[in-house]
Amino acid sequence: MQRSPSVRRAVRSLGIALALAAALASAGCASGGLPWPWRGADGVERGDDGRWHDADGRFAIADLARVSSRAADSAPTPSTPAFERIRVAGAVLAYRASTGATLTMLRECGRGDAPAAVLARQLRIGIRGADEEVIESRAVTLRGDDGWQQLFRAYEGSRAVLVRSVTLRGGGCTMDWVLVDASDPAVDAAFERWWQSFEPSRGGAS
């Protein structure tokens, strides 16, 4: 049965809302990392190449724990953030940074042909506590697929965090990467390298 747009938006925002709540919690309450090997919510498994692969061969993406520690021309330093895998409901993959930030990857297919900018806006307004003011908003592309990146604040009571999201459309599917607490430049840079490592199968992110 086809989900209504309002139901789809609610489901898509669930994992992000949980990530937001986790990031706003104290770092000392962070959940432990997952034992190895681990399978993601949508059946992703780590391959021999160290990348996450969809069980049906639809996409591959780098392991954030590896991507984050490899700056282009430098070795890891004491200030390089560490990442551990965590479970977030509705997410294909999720990580927590040593700074307390959370980084999630979500996917939903069959949403129609809405532009990435519209889907990104739906994502933002579906997050309780999201500020109406957008700090950054721009088009992005990845391997021929159109996307949209935005930066905004979200509030939990009187506390505020920066949220950066990337929404990518391809092959009839929507991919969302969400960084909750983008205040640390090193974590923000790792997030950029992570989503840009995404490689859909031939025909797009299907």
What's the topology here?
Layout: H1 5-24, E1 44-46, E2 51-54, E3 59-62, H2 64-67, E4 83-85, E5 93-97, E6 102-109, H3 116-125, E7 130-142, E8 145-156, E9 159-170, E10 173-180, H4 185-196, E11 199-200
Antiparallel strand pairs: 1-2, 2-3, 3-11, 4-5, 5-6, 6-10, 7-8, 8-9, 9-10
TL;DR?
The protein is α+β, with helices and mostly antiparallel strands.
Can you describe what's shown?
The chain has a seven-stranded antiparallel sheet, sandwiched between helices. Strands 1-2-3-11 form a four-stranded antiparallel sheet. Strand 7 and strand 8 form a beta hairpin. The chain starts with a helix and ends in a 6-residue tail after the last strand. Helices cover 22% and strands 36% of the residues. Residues 1-11 and 26-41 have low confidence and may be disordered. It has helices at 5-24, 64-67, 116-125, 185-196; strands at 44-46, 51-54, 59-62, 83-85, 93-97, 102-109, 130-142, 145-156, 159-170, 173-180, 199-200. The longest helix is centred in the N-terminal third of the chain and has 20 residues, at 5-24.
Question: Which terms would index this structure?
Answer:
alpha+beta, 206 residues, disordered N terminus, four-stranded antiparallel beta sheet, seven-stranded antiparallel beta sheet
